[in-house]
Amino acid sequence: MPGEGEAASEHIGYRGPTACAAAGITYRQLDYWARTGLVEPSVRPAYGSGTQRLYSFRDVVVLKIVKRFLDTGVSLQNIRSAVQHLRQRGFRDLELMTLMSDGATVYECTSPDEVHALLQGGQGIFGIAVGVVWQDVESALSQLHGERVDTGEAIVGHNTTDELARRRNRAV
For 119, which DSSP code? Predict the structure, then answer.
């Protein structure tokens, strides 16, 4: 169920390559979106040459949503407006919403009635169930490396007993 690892995930950050793999985007896209303020890393921004950005679980979910909108032809300007809206939402609200778009405007639907009202307009509409994206990202990140925000300790699949992670942490 979405949100089960919410408390634990608040203490884990993901480096750029991991965020890219989980969201299905290129590093070039990630870098551009961070530099232009579309999706900035909320855990740790880059502070110049040599520093690593660190993305939260929620950031990765938003990255995947942006990717899905781009794949369906929504303009970057409309995506920016949608991301601004998502930034203001909490974890609970985010995983329960459905985002709909007609290609020009992005709508938030939090009830089946709102989805139905949009569909009755007769125009082509597509939707993104954020809860499904949430689960996709959880599944992808469970196979990838994260790190504890407070200590920098490597976490593999949120399983701190992983042998490779233990070795890597001893070497640090």
Answer: H
Q: What is the pTM of this model?
A: 0.78
- Report the candidate in 84, 40, 35 with the shortest Cα–Cα distance to residue 59: 40
E strand or H helix that includes residue 22: helix 16-23
CATH number at residue 30: 1.10.1660.10
* Rounded Cα–Cα distance for residues 162 and 139 (Å): 17
Residue 132 CA to residue 126 CA, distance in Å, equals 14
Tell whether the torsion through CA atoms of 126, 131, 132 and 137 is positive or negative: positive
Backbone phi, psi, residue 90, to 5°? -85, 170
Helix ranges (DSSP H) in the chain? 6-9, 16-23, 27-35, 57-71, 76-87, 91-96, 112-119, 130-141, 163-171
| pLDDT, tens only, 12-49 | 899 999 999 999 999 999 999 999 999 999 988 877 77
Measure CA 48 to chain center. Answer: 23
Q: How many domains does the chain have?
A: 1
User: Measured between alpha carbons, how far is 135 from 150 in angstroms, rounded to an integer?
Assistant: 25
Q: What is the pLDDT of residue 154?
A: 84
Q: Which domain holds residue 146?
A: 4-170
